[in-house]
Amino acid sequence: MRFYLSTPTICIVFLGKVVYNGFKWGKVGNTKSSAHPHQNTMFIGEFHHSIDDKGRIAIPVKFRAPLKKAVVTRGLDNCLFLYSASEWKIIAEKLAALPLTQSNARAFARFMLAGAMEVSVDGQGRVVVPEYLRTYGSLKKNVVVAGLYNHVEIWDEAAWAAYTARTEKESGAIAEQLHNLGV
Asked: Among 65, 76, 105, 108, which is disulfide-ready with 14 (CB 3.0 to 4.6 Å)?
């Protein structure tokens, strides 16, 4: 069996400071685990939905199976992150492994973990987003559900429009910076 040193598995920047930058050894070859059947699910796309009076948001049909059991939490840029239960377990373990002696690591772990809530997709394909998370994300009536490979983001529609407009203008500079990371 051969091993390789991968690129950083997680690099967390919180309040302008790197709070964790870890490397991981991995096996060469197929590492797909049957314990997490949706582990390799890829979430992509942008979908516009509305929130009903009970705080429920429709999940796109192609996202529903892996998100049958999921976790919603505070995200970055004032959106919400929605993870499948199996992906959340991976993220939570990494957050729990952050050094307790670093205040930014503790702050980021609290930010992500304390705000998290388990959710389930109901028979109509919706999840209930708790009020405190709707408030954090400034979610009004119309929202955007955006797939970002291993998780889903939920944005207020106006905030998403402003964010994407700003990001599209800066896309060239962003691409140059990401080149240094091998993207």
From this structure: 108
| Residue 82, strand partner residues | 72, 152
The label of the residue with tokens 């800066």 reads 170
Distances (CA, A) of 101 to 24, 93, 114, 177: 21, 17, 18, 30
Over residues 54-63, the pLDDT tens digits come to 999 999 999 9
Q: What is the DSSP letter of 98?
A: S
Cα separation of 81 and 115, whole Å? Answer: 11
To the question of pTM greater than 0.85 for the whole model, the response is no
Q: 120 by DSSP, 3-state: which?
A: strand
Please state, in angstroms and rounded to a whole number, the distance separating the CA atoms of residues 46 and 146. 4
Q: How many CB atoms lie within 10 A of CB 109?
A: 22
CA distances from 147 to 7, 68, 79, 125 (A): 23, 15, 13, 16
Q: Which of 101, 103, 87 is nearest to 41 (CA)?
A: 87
- Whether the CB-CB separation of 47 and 145 falls below 8 Å is answered with yes
Euclidean distance between CA atoms 113 and 98, whole angstroms: 12
Cβ pair 14, 111 in contact under 8 A? yes
Instruction: Map out the domains of the chain as residue ranges.
Output: 39-179
